[in-house]
Description:
By secondary structure, this protein is α/β, with parallel strands linked by helices. The protein has one domain (6-365): Alpha-Beta Barrel (TIM Barrel). Helix content is 33%, strand content 18%. It is built from 12 helices and 17 strands. Strands 1, 2, 3, 4, 7, 8, 9, 10, 12 and 15 form a 10-stranded mixed β-sheet that branches. Helix 5 crosses helix 6 (182-194) and helix 11 (307-320) packs parallel to helix 12. The longest helix is centred in the C-terminal third of the chain and has 16 residues, at 239-254. The protein is globular and about 55 Å long. Residues 124-130 and 232-236 have low confidence and may be disordered.
Amino acid sequence: MSNKVRVIAFYLPQFHPTPENDKWWGPGFTEWTNVGKAKPLFKGHYQPRVPRDLGYYDLRIPEVREAQAKLAREAGIEGFCYWHYWFGDGERLLERPFNEVLESGKPDFPFCLGWANHSWWAKDWNADAVRNKSLLVEQRYPGLEDLRLHFNFLIKAFNDPRYIKIKNQPIFYIFDPSTLPQLYIDHLHKWSKEAGFQDGLFLVANCTDKQPVETFLDKGYNAVSYQRLSGARYFYKNKFQKLLYRINDFCKKIILHHPPFSEDYKNAFMIDPDIDNQNCVIPSIVPNWDHTPRSGMRGTLFMNSTPALFKKQVELALKTISNKEDELKILFLKSWNEWAEGNYMEPDLKFGKGYITALKEALEDNKNL
């Protein structure tokens, strides 16, 4: 596909057993455990989600990773942004799939890394959705010695010919930019320049609200990407609008027995053309979202997502970035395989390859952007 638009899909490396998950949740636990036990919470609620082409896969199997790359190419996706966990003092989790991708050279499919720099809490996984705030792993920033150890791993990935770059700057996505020390940002750039990347890294700050872009650019980030999973709430600023929304949430829970933080997908407003059209902002496109397999009635979800509606969202995003310089015509796709969040592109029993086809068609229809 000769398309100038670059679509980079977030990739969760969780679908394989680990000693830590065995300890916390029982032998053999993976995200598939949450996916498989999910139940509809109201009439018409699309649960459970059942994978089709790839089945309940294990990411330790190279053929699975090759099949994922083949499907992503079919959709017009440039590459994966693998979530990467480094908690401090050299502690890593879920590292095996990406380590094998890096060491084997396969699949021959572009990638970058996103540092998921956040603590893990039991509330994220509790089977009955009780928020007990039990800390499992703490995100730590112990200092430059540990950062150097981290960077020594990162530079191997940055130097891989598959690594995605912008103007020769390796993209490095930061999940929680507000907690990353300034000392870390400065040295990541400094050491990258010393390693041969003249302009340092292309650091992207993940944002969940309307914090000014300048807040992050001034710290050394090159761009921001807004994750507007709050739906229409993103645009409601005055107290009266917020009060109306709280009343609406209460009615949904009491009268309709819906999770209070539910919203129709067509009203989700995940693209803000007035902000996302800037070169320093990378829009996110979201095919679907349903956190209830993890959180039950406390979960957030977008209802009634379809490939056709997703295609419209992609088309709006493409129009929003149409005037940017070619190398900055980028979209982050959230996500490739977050099944327990109902947030995935991979084929399922209901829609098959519908979302893959929708993205492919949107990109092909706008290939002269």
